Structures are given as structure tokens and as C-alpha cells.
Amino acid sequence: MNNNTTPNWQDAPPEFQTDLDALQHLSDNELWQITRAQHSTNIDRHQYLLDQNANGNITPTEQTELTQLRTTANRFMLRKAYAAALLKSRGHAIPPADQL
Predict the structure, then answer these.
(1) Predicted TM-score of the model (pTM)
(2) Which helix (H) or strand (E) holds 91?
């Protein structure tokens, strides 16, 4: 059942559009896997780098690492949200985020 329109991935930042476009071609089961996935980024390292940045003590190498971690986290969350939106557009009920 497809009672809603497909979410528009073209409004996303250009660096994420290819990933989101590819999700449209996945099965519902594959989308559920993405929606339920847990991010594996080293949260402690990410927080350390955020603190270093906030305190003005971040090195250029750490700044590059922080940018990469942020991009990875953003891509992960955007894929999860878009997968959930696709499932909803296909007629599935999506539980609250804390239940995924």
C-alpha cells in the first residue's frame, strides 16, 4: 500500500543525495534494517573532540577527524530518517525513535 508520496531526497545536502536516492530502491526489509541500526561511532572520541573544539584546543588533525565524524554521524542519521520516511510512505507504521 502506498498512500503517501515518496519523500524528496533532493532537498538534502548534495553530499548525501546519492545515498538517499539509493534507498528508494531497497526492499522494506532492508529499510527496516537501516531504520533500526545503531551508530557505531566512538562516542567518547567524538565528545573529546567536541570539547577540544569548544575550548579552542583542537589541532588541525583533530579538526579534520571531528569533521569526518560529524559527516559520518549526519549521514547515518539522515539515512535512518529517510528510510523511516520511505517506510511510512509505503504504508508502514513507524514507532517512536526511542523504540527503534
Answers:
(1) 0.81
(2) none
